[in-house]
Specification:
The chain has 121 residues and is an alpha+beta fold. 17% of the residues lie in helices and 37% in strands. It is built from two helices and ten strands, in the order βββαββββαβββ. The strands form three sheets. A five-stranded mixed beta sheet has the order 8-5-6-10-9. A hairpin with a 5-residue loop joins strand 5 and strand 6. The radius of gyration is 18 Å and the shape is elongated.
Length: 121
C-alpha cells in the first residue's frame, strides 16, 4: 500500500489530501472537503495535467508581448514540448483574447491562445 500526500489546488481551500494506492490504483482519498479534491487527487496521482502559461512576442502592437496559455490542460510530461513550440513565435497585432496563437501545440491537440487584447499601433 502506497500513500501520497498532496495539497489540493481544485479550489481556494487548499485541503491537505492523503491518497492511498494499491498496485497503481487509487483505493481512497481523504482530507478533501469537496468533490473537486477527490477528483484532483485521483487525476494527480494517475495522470497529472497542467495549464501552461507563457508569453510570445508581438510586432506592431501597443506592447511587445502578449500573455498566452494552453486552451485546456495538457499532460504534465508535455510541458517542455509546449514551451519549445512557442519559444520562437512572434505574432502580429491586433490580437484579441482567445485568438489561437499556435494550433495543436506539440501535437497535443491543444491550442495556445492569447489571454490579452493587444491593439495595433
Amino acid at each position: 500500500m502506497e500513500k501520497r500526500n498532496l495539497t489540493c489546488i481544485g479550489c481556494p481551500m487548499g485541503c491537505l489530501l492523503t491518497v492511498e494506492m494499491d498496485n497503481g490504483e487509487v483505493t481512497s482519498v481523504t482530507g478533501n472537503t469537496c468533490k473537486r479534491g477527490d477528483d484532483y487527487a485521483r487525476k494527480e496521482v494517475t495522470h497529472p495535467t497542467r495549464i501552461v502559461t507563457s508569453s510570445v512576442y508581438v510586432t506592431g502592437g501597443a506592447i511587445p508581448m502578449v500573455s498566452v496559455k494552453t486552451a485546456h490542460d495538457i499532460p504534465k510530461e508535455k510541458i517542455m514540448d509546449i514551451m519549445a513550440s512557442i519559444e520562437h513565435v512572434t505574432v502580429e497585432a491586433p490580437i484579441k483574447i482567445g485568438d489561437v496563437i499556435v494550433a495543436n501545440a506539440a501535437d497535443t491537440g491543444v491550442d495556445i491562445i492569447a489571454t490579452k487584447d493587444i491593439a495595433a499601433v
